[in-house]
Amino acid sequence: MSKDNLTLPVKNTDAIILGTLPSKLEVVRGQNNASDASLAAVQDKERDISFITPNIEAADVHRSRSYFKKPQNWIGFVTQISSDGFSARLNDKTNSSTSEEAEFDLEDVSNGDSKLLKIGAVFYWSVGYANQNGQIIKQSILRFKRDANMSDTEFDFLADRASELNNNILWD
Amino acid sequence: MVDKFLEFQTINIAVVGDFNPTIFQPFWLSSKNLIREDEAKSANVELIHNDIVRFNLDWVSFEITRNRFDVRCTKEPYFDPVKDLTVGIFKILHETPIRTLGINHIFELALQNEKYFYNFGKNLAILDLWEPSLNKPKLNYFEVIENERGDGKKGSRRVRLRSAPERTFGVTLDINNHFNIDNKISEESLVNLIGSNWQGSLESGHTILANLFEKNKFYNE
Amino acid sequence: MDNLPTNNIFEVSLIGTGGGYGESVVIHMGDDNWAVIDSCIDPNSKNCLPLQYLEAKGVNVATNVKLIVCTHWHNDHVQGISTLLAACKSAVFSMARANDRKKFLLLVGLDTTRLKVSDGSSSTSEIQSCFEILSSRQTTFKNAEQDKTLFSSVSGKVSASIKSLSPSDLVVSEFDSEISTLISEFGKSNRKIINNKPNNKSVVLLISVNEHSAIFGADLEVTANPKKGWLCILDNSTVIKGVKAGLVKIPHHGSSNGYHDRIWTEIVEKDPTAKLTPWNIGKKLPKQEMLDTYLRHTANLFITSDVKKSSKPKKREKRIEKTIFRFNPTLREIRYDFGIVRSRLDLNISGCKWKTELFGSAKQIENERE
Predict the structure, then answer these.
(1) How far apart are CA A74 and CA A68, in angstroms?
(2) For the segment A54-94, what is each residue's pLDDT rounded down to a tens digit?
(3) A76, A94, C166, C258: which has the highest count of C-beta atoms within 10 A?
(4) Are the Cβ atoms of A138 and C323 closer than 8 angstroms?
(5) Closest of C250, C252, C278 to residue C264, by C-alpha
(6) Range of B170's domain?
């Protein structure tokens, strides 16, 4: 273990070369002010020096081989819930003209999302072909939308705005 | 026409500011209900260090350094969840000083044959200028900048094209949609920037690609 | 469709979208005075249909639309209403009364803000936009409640008024508690605020022009509690006493919840002109037995478009259609079906009856047994 107190990656790794890491990071740290897509794009030179081990580079490539080819995507919200499923109204994300409706089974909802299934809950639904490391798979993915709770600052701002509107509107 | 040559696309959100990378860990995300608990349990953690954190879930990769937050996704069904995740993170960390935002769209193309591949580059840059100084010149990398955004916001757009040797006749089109953020402590401005520009950014990325194919008729020559 | 009605024409046009994208009523009360009840959109163009209707007729919407009423903030009644209000610069805006206005504004603001970082459109964002317009414009907001005059005008031979017959005091005070509960329950959470039973708070309107009256039932239902809903109007409204409306916009898409025999015997004249819009999402309305019930009261029954017996999926690329069918064969389109039922009567002709014309998918409902 190096004196840098690094936490080692956990999977698929034998030895990690750590000695040169701090100096490489020093180079990257102060200079990357662009919002480009990858560190590599901005700091090609530093990237070429593999300060992160080849295993992680391989993981990069591995990740890039999992993708979808032109899926059909919707955003929907739950309109009714029954004992074995729910109904929803959906909007096609690529062609937002008329809406659609459909019924879904409870089995379509991942365990981790089950608490999010409520009337009015928003979810994303996609169907299409996925490429997972060269293997083509037909998939349907349903995922409920998650968002952080409103902060106190935001809530106070809205309360102030409501007050302002209340004062400005000419109520009869 | 685009569909014929488009393999897949990647979305990347990059935020430049001042961060403490060790905050960003899978269980922290699930504790805030931003991801599922089982996703946190099965996360592939590559590195956790005071200066850099790197981990990935099935659908998103994270890399955070002291001054850069970077998430990336290659699975289109998860593009909106990535946006939600980023917004959620910065709503919670609303006191984080932030300077710039990049919503980046990377289109991975495969141009099918050598003729198309060569013509694509030839139509972007006048390769004849380099002959006979260079032997059989080919375009390897190309960059165009829009200095001032057309929508009145502070920032710019940059388009880069490069050959992608990892794919046969591969070309990568990388569109950087860059926003400067005035208010340094900017939960509201970052969250609103992402929220109000997300859909437009996705659409403009596709428009740039479609227009490029419309004007660069490499497939007709 | 022909152009502007002349000053002596009382016109009521019910605009329907097929039961998925809202409904609206556009009214000419004579003398170039216009009012609009609710709003709806064309889902393809996103155009506000009542605004489009008025502009196509050549109405000067900035000056001649005098009142816009939002009968309740259900999504199918408010789509495009902020666009309408923005264009109708002289219009007074009216909605059901909320006693604690600041809390109501906060509730609407909370829900709208949640949606700013999402892709959802919602009734609350439309209402929020309306409040922002009213705030900057400094024009009057009229609270709608039982027996309240929202508009009146006397000019030459034409005397017109619009009165709200609901919601009742009990409904208003229940809504005030509901607002507090919704704020504390949903507050800072990221869940969409669910508005329970907005139909209870529906604003029913009585429009009178000279000796003629029309009732617009919104989505108000009949409840067991006589201090709410239609029974409260029938038992307690003073403005409705002695009125016999010659035209009725049937409440709640002709559902049985919106029907009470007393409405048709006490405040509606025999054989009136009656019109309604369908509901085609989930359960379909109106049901045939309700149409038969209404046909017992009038032969002049009109609907803006058919109730769809079944719906098909949207047309897509073959490979996508196959994939969708494999994973969820229940997916179907909520079709847009535009129709207008327009009724007119001439105020200069004594005893004039309503004449109705149909446009788009609108049709007359006839007694099938005859």
Answers:
(1) 15
(2) 223 333 433 446 788 789 999 998 989 999 999 999 999 88
(3) C166
(4) yes
(5) C250
(6) 2-9+104-216
